[in-house]
Amino acid sequence: MEKRLSELLNLVIKTHIKTAEPIGSRFLVEKCDLGRGEATVRNELRELEEQGYLRHPHTSAGRIPTEKGYRYYLKNLDLARAKLTKKDNDVFGMSVSADTDKENAQKVLVKNLTALSNATAILAFSPDQVYYTGLSNLFSQPEFSELALVADVTQIFDHCEDCLENFSDEVTTEIKYFFGPEHGFGNLLSVAAFRFGDESLLILLGPMRMDYARNYALMNKIKELI
């Protein structure tokens, strides 16, 4: 991809992650100091759409990323440089008391993960011992404003063990991102996951509009502590 288009796509995705709104050429020209006119940017956005990286919602003049767009963005994101704030680290540092047993300590860590990421987490101690938390975070996202979508995702969690059985073989000890067809939790979601211990998994789920860099840093912190 040409550098100008790559930079524009990354800008659109970063902005959409923050705003949850479709991004148009006028907004980009007025707010982002691109150094080129609105007509040029509009043509570039159209080019990215034709290449499958953006799509045009029916009710908006702006564009939002497609799964292909997010994959490109993630591929070019330097996740190793993602850092947490002191406040984030303090939350994890205070989250577990000395007398808490290991399983409860892990649950507390995961609850803090969902609070800081505004996402949902599944902690699978084993195939038949599964704990999840933060589901309300998922349903508070604009992507799930329609009741039908909420029902679809709820059904997935009702069959969580089946999803895990089909997905767990793909998870390794390294933190890795997965998209819709790769994880089985629905095409609207992105998933970050890693394996720890003998047979345990930690999975973080959110809309494809999740903050990939921040969530990677959060998962990395959990990996150190869990």
Please provide a brief summary of the model:
Helix content is 50%, strand content 16%.
Description of the molecule:
With 226 residues, the protein is an alpha+beta fold. It folds into two domains: 73 residues, Arc Repressor Mutant, subunit A, CATH 1.10.10; 147 residues, Beta-Lactamase (2-Layer Sandwich). The chain has eleven helices and seven strands. The chain has a five-stranded antiparallel β-sheet with strand order 4-3-7-6-5, with helices on both faces. The protein has a two-stranded antiparallel sheet with strand order 1-2. A hairpin with an 8-residue loop joins β1 and β2. The chain is globular, with a radius of gyration of 19 Å. The N and C termini lie far apart (40 Å). The model has no long low-confidence stretch (mean pLDDT 88). One of its GO terms (biological process) is negative regulation of DNA-templated transcription. Pfam families: HrcA. One of its GO terms (molecular function) is DNA binding. Keywords: Repressor, Stress response, Transcription, Transcription regulation. This is Heat-inducible transcription repressor HrcA C-terminal domain-containing protein.
